[in-house]
Design brief:
- The strands form three sheets. Strands 2-1-3-4 form a four-stranded parallel sheet, with helices on both faces.
- It is built from 15 helices and twelve strands.
- The chain folds into three domains: 104 residues, NadA-like (Rossmann fold); 101 residues, Rossmann fold (3-Layer(aba) Sandwich), CATH 3.40.50; 87 residues, 3-Layer(aba) Sandwich (Rossmann fold).
- The relative contact order is 0.17.
- The chain starts with a helix and ends with a helix.
- Helix 1 runs parallel beside helix 14, helix 3 runs parallel beside helix 4 and helix 4 packs across helix 15.
- Helices cover 44% and strands 16% of the residues.
- By secondary structure, the protein is an alpha/beta fold.
- Bound molecules: 1,3-dihydroxyacetonephosphate and iron/sulfur cluster.
- The site of iron/sulfur cluster has 14 residues, from helix 9.
- Iron/sulfur cluster (SF4) binds next to helix 9.
């Protein structure tokens, strides 16, 4: 099928079946345009929970669809492919969490939403990059075991010196790959550009930033800024919304590899097939779902 025909069929199927389509800023622009809502991880998880539609097509990596299912177990949550998985979500395990739990009193296990449903079940509260600071700041526990993302954990620790952070070794390969020297080389060419950084980047990169925030935070900042040139230190799917909102501003990448291969597995063909067959569906074991829901609900309660 040609691209135009696929798009028309997707629109028809979506309307006929009353399906809510959600998309993360890292999926291809063409998919973002077909979605009812596009956003960062927190916003999408809130929309998935609050909207009345009973079938959701989640265009993002698997933990996103899983979180929607966990928060609304009565809804049918489908994804374009079960193959799109965030590698960081698997970078911690139950054994490690239990070991830290036995070594520390007065401990909260804080889990970045980029994690498996199992890991969420061993955690006290979930966070995303847009609400992590406020949630962790207000926790009564002194010791914070932050999983799985080492970089976001270290960033929070710089902002919350009264907490004692224990870090995990996990990272996002795409953000980890962004290096201070490469950014400085781009800055050398575009001297007036502001540097906008996602907190999944390393501290050496965060230190260069004019602004640090989630994907939607970066878009808001660039849109409101009086500056007209920016160096983007995150996944480049974000460019679609940045350009749509700011057609006369300039956005520079740092390296060509600022692409999340898993997010790019969400293709038009996969979206069409999912809408047509209502598969693959996110199905979790009930005991995992019931354990994981507590940390996600706590995030929505504290993040309000
Ligand atoms: P946010 O959209 O919440 O900033 O998350 C980035 C991300 O890596 C999602 O996979
Ligand atoms: Fe995971 Fe990084 Fe891809 Fe986000 S960009 S889904 S954190 S691998």
């Amino acid at each position: 099928m040609f691209k135009g025909e696929l798009i028309e069929r997707i629109k028809i199927l979506k309307e006929e079946k009353g399906i809510l389509i959600l998309a993360h800023y890292y999926v291809d622009g063409i998919i973002q345009e077909l979605a009812d809502f596009v956003g960062d991880s927190y916003y999408l998880s809130k929309i998935a929970k609050d909207r009345k539609e009973n079938i959701i097509l989640f265009c993002g990596v698997s933990f996103m669809g899983e979180s929607a299912k966990i928060l609304s177990p009565h809804k049918k949550v489908i994804v374009p492919t079960l193959d799109a998985k965030c590698p960081m979500a698997f970078m911690v395990n139950e054994e490690k969490v239990n070991e830290i739990k036995t070594n520390y009193d007065d401990l909260a296990v804080v889990c970045y939403i980029n994690s498996t449903a199992e890991i969420k079940g061993f955690s006290d509260v979930c966070v995303t990059s847009s609400n992590a600071y406020n949630i962790v700041k207000n926790l009564k526990e002194k010791n914070i075991y932050f999983i799985p993302d080492n970089n976001l954990g270290r960033y929070l620790a710089t902002k919350l010196p009264n907490k004692n952070f224990i870090f995990n070794e996990g990272y996002c390969p795409i953000h980890q790959n962004l290096k201070k020297d490469d950014i400085l080389k781009v800055k050398e060419v575009h001297k007036n550009a502001e540097i906008l950084v996602h907190p999944e980047c390393k501290l050496e990169v965060l230190e260069l930033a004019s602004f640090i925030g989630s994907t939607s935070g970066i878009i808001d900042y660039a849109t409101k800024s009086e500056g007209d040139e920016f160096i983007i230190c995150t996944e480049m799917g974000i460019l679609h919304e940045l350009i749509t909102k700011n057609p006369f501003k300039k956005f520079h990448s740092v390296i060509p590899e600022q692409i999340c291969p898993d997010m790019k597995k969400i293709t038009l063909e996969a979206v069409y097939n999912a809408l047509n067959t209502l598969t693959p569906e996110i199905l979790l074991e009930k005991h995992i779902e019931m354990k994981a829901v507590k940390s996600l609900e706590k995030m929505h309660e504290l993040g309000r």
